[in-house]
């Protein structure tokens, strides 16, 4: 176990960090709750707020209860769980790779997951297998290859970009070999979507509950190592093993996200960035990132449902556009030396 | 103006002989491209049909299918290779590549939005691809910046390209998933194929490609001078700003034109300049000359390979290129010291 500095400025700084992190967490949770209430109340079957509470507690019309319990709540729940898993995974990944851009997307997990799902949907065409299984296997394989070939730091990211470029063309190839309807269904899966989700919510929630506590602990250890630098190493803290554990947990959390909604991009990258902005702590914080990831994905899904009237965009298209734009802005600011 | 460089020691005569060898290799790959396919032909048959066009099946295959395809491969290969040379020289980043820098995604987004808006016809798609490529190239340059400390060292532009590319890919995903017609056209465009493209597609793109080539030739000298830094360039009367703007314009014309004809083909623009520099050293004039031959050799060979590997069908050339190019890219990234352009 790592010892926390017991006196002096180190401890005070740490306590201040913790306080800010807790505050940011509360802000993110409030945000999620607000969006969730808005999502519950709106939709094609609009529900005035005063009718919401009675319906949720067992009153109201059966029709309204059906809409709330069968349609809206499962979708909102899945969005929150998937967003939290991706946010936490991103924070862990950035800690472990010591790179603010290390994320499951950038190292090729997302594209690999897409390839895995496509192989299940278009090549194997086996009903016993769900695309989620293929996606998790494919994503983990690519992330593993990127880690193996790239090590840590900038090189990992560049190797990931190379692998992504290769698999993108493989995915395009698989899509041309299928019927257009099959291909378009598969393409929706590739982008990441919450349409028709919610069947596996208890399973996803369970996985998140199992993975999140160790993730928080490992990240905390890593953060202390970063702060203490070589001292921690000389004290015999198993830094390497901790990084490995963190990466494995990050991959597992990403897998939860992918299983729930497909390879939704950029939540894992953006949530820790926002968390750092809010807390002004150098290393990304897992809990805050998870809370922000949940809020982000839920908001993006609401946006995706409303952006084009009469049609449902997959949420991944929205997070891709917003996340890519956000990343471009962050990069531009950082490279121009502004604080952000 | 002659600048003394270590490679100035390499004999021009030797390098010229190397160019001749490359030309011969290109000729061999062209012959292979005309001979290999679903209907195998002998070189003798092909030659006979080329000299005197008959009305046999072989004649149809040679004149209507394989000649246009080979011509397109040569032009696209040269254009992408030169675009890669310019981009790497411009950004002084050894990993710069039109595909990695978001230019393809820009062209794709523009074309897809065009399909949705009802733009049809080759000319319309070409204009859109050029526009999209230009906007994406500009965005990536603005985000990544081509000056300042660290520009060349840390793959900054590749990251900027990944960010801008992801954003534009999101647009493409949104549009194609809302509109099945757009999706169906896009999925075939996105694999970067040389098959089924008529010669008229190349002719439509020709003005853009030729203009890009002309600007490239004009910008070789000033860019070569800037290799030694902006200050020495300015001292020698070269304006870094103008030179970069011209080089960027040429890159956009070449990439946009090539992408409009053959769809997005990655990695070629990355790998060819490296191979060229390995042969002839960093002098830009020679790199351009070698790349303009090596690019077509690589693309024509990859296309032939795609036909051989999946007989009697074929694998699209961009996929073959990805399978060759991704390992090269990863090896470059892993190499501790990457030779600077």
UniProtKB/TrEMBL annotation, chain A:
**What is the source species?**
Micromonospora carbonacea
Q: Which taxonomic lineage does the organism of this UniProt entry have? A: Bacteria, Bacillati, Actinomycetota, Actinomycetes, Micromonosporales
Describe its membrane topology: Multi-pass membrane protein
Q: Which family does it belong to?
A: Belongs to the binding-protein-dependent transport system permease family. FecCD subfamily.
Instruction: State where the protein is found.
Output: Cell membrane
Q: Name one GO cellular component term.
A: plasma membrane
Q: Could you confirm whether the keyword Transmembrane helix appears in this record? A: yes
Give the keywords, sorted.
Cell membrane, Membrane, Transmembrane, Transmembrane helix, Transport
The record's annotation in Gene3D superfamilies points to: ABC transporter involved in vitamin B12 uptake, BtuC
* Protein name, entry field: Iron chelate uptake ABC transporter family permease subunit
Automatic annotation (TrEMBL), chain B:
Q: What is this protein called?
A: Iron ABC transporter permease
Domain of life according to the entry: Bacteria
Cited Pfam families:
FecCD
| Claim: Transport is one of the keywords in the record | yes
Q: Tell me a Gene Ontology molecular-function term this record carries.
A: transmembrane transporter activity
Q: CDD domains annotated for this entry? A: TM_ABC_iron-siderophores_like
Listed under GO cellular component are: plasma membrane
State the organism's lineage: Bacteria, Bacillati, Actinomycetota, Actinomycetes, Micromonosporales
Species of origin: Micromonospora carbonacea
Q: What is the membrane topology here?
A: Multi-pass membrane protein
């Amino acid at each position: 176990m790592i010892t926390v500095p017991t006196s002096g400025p180190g401890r005070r700084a740490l306590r201040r960090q913790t306080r800010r992190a807790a505050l940011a967490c509360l802000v993110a949770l409030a945000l999620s709750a607000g969006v969730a209430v808005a999502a519950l109340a709106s939709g094609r079957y609009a529900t005035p707020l005063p009718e919401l509470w009675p319906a949720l507690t067992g009153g109201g019309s059966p029709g309204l209860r059906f809409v709330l319990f069968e349609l809206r709540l499962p979708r909102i729940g899945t969005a929150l769980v998937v967003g939290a898993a991706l946010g936490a995974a991103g924070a862990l990944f950035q800690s472990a790779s010591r790179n603010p851009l290390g994320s499951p997307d950038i190292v090729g997990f997302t594209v690999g997951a897409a390839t895995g799902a496509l192989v299940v949907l278009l090549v194997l065409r086996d009903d016993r297998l769900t695309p989620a299984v293929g996606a998790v296997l494919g994503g983990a394989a690519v992330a593993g290859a990127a880690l193996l070939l790239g090590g840590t730091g900038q090189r990992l990211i560049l190797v990931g970009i190379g692998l992504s470029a290769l698999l993108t063309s493989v995915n395009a190839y698989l899509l041309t070999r299928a019927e257009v309807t099959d291909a378009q269904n598969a393409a929706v899966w590739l982008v990441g979507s919450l349409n028709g989700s919610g069947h596996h919510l208890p399973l996803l929630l369970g996985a998140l509950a199992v993975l999140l506590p160790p993730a928080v602990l490992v990240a905390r250890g890593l953060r202390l190592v970063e702060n203490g630098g070589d001292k921690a190493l000389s004290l015999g803290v198993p830094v390497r093993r901790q990084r490995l554990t963190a990466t494995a947990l990050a991959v597992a959390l990403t897998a939860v996200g992918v299983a729930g909604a497909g390879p939704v991009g950029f939540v894992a990258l953006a949530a820790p960035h926002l968390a750092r902005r809010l807390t002004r702590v150098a290393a990304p914080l897992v809990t805050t990132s998870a809370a922000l990831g949940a809020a982000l994905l839920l908001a993006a899904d609401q946006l995706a449902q409303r952006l084009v009237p009469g049609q449902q965009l997959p949420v991944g298209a929205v997070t891709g556009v917003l996340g890519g734009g956000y990343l471009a802005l962050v990069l531009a600011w950082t490279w121009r030396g502004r604080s952000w | 103006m002659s600048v003394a460089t270590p490679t100035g020691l390499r004999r021009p005569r030797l390098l010229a002989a190397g160019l001749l060898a490359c030309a011969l290799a290109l000729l061999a790959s062209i012959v292979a491209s005309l001979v290999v396919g679903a209907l195998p032909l002998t070189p003798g048959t092909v030659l006979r049909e080329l000299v005197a066009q008959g009305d046999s099946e072989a004649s149809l295959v040679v004149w209507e299918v394989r000649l246009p395809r080979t011509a397109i491969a040569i032009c696209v290969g040269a254009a992408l290779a030169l675009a890669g040379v310019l981009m790497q020289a411009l950004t002084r980043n050894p990993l710069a590549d039109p595909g990695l820098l978001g230019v393809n995604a820009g062209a794709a987004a523009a074309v897809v939005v065009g399909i949705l808006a009802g733009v049809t016809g080759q000319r319309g798609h070409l204009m859109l691809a050029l526009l999209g490529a230009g906007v994406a190239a500009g965005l990536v340059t603005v985000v990544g910046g081509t000056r300042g400390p660290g520009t060349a060292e840390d793959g900054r532009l590749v990251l900027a390209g990944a960010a801008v590319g992801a954003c534009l890919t999101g647009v493409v995903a949104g549009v194609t998933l809302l509109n099945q017609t757009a999706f169906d056209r896009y999925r075939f465009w996105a694999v970067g194929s040389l098959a089924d493209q008529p010669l008229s597609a190349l002719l439509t793109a020709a003005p853009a490609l030729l203009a890009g080539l002309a600007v490239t030739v004009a910008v070789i000298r000033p860019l070569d001078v800037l290799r030694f830094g902006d200050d020495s360039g300015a001292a020698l009367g070269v304006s870094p700003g103008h030179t970069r703007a011209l080089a960027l314009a040429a890159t956009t014309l070449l990439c946009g034109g090539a992408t409009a004809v053959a769809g997005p083909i990655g990695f070629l623009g990355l790998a060819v300049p490296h191979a060229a520099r390995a042969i002839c050293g960093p002098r830009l004039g020679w790199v351009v000359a070698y790349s303009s031959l090596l690019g077509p050799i690589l693309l024509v060979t990859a296309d032939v390979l795609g036909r051989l590997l999946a007989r009697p069908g074929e694998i699209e050339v961009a996929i073959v290129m990805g399978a060759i190019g991704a390992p090269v890219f990863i090896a470059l990234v892993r190499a501790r010291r990457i030779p600077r352009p």
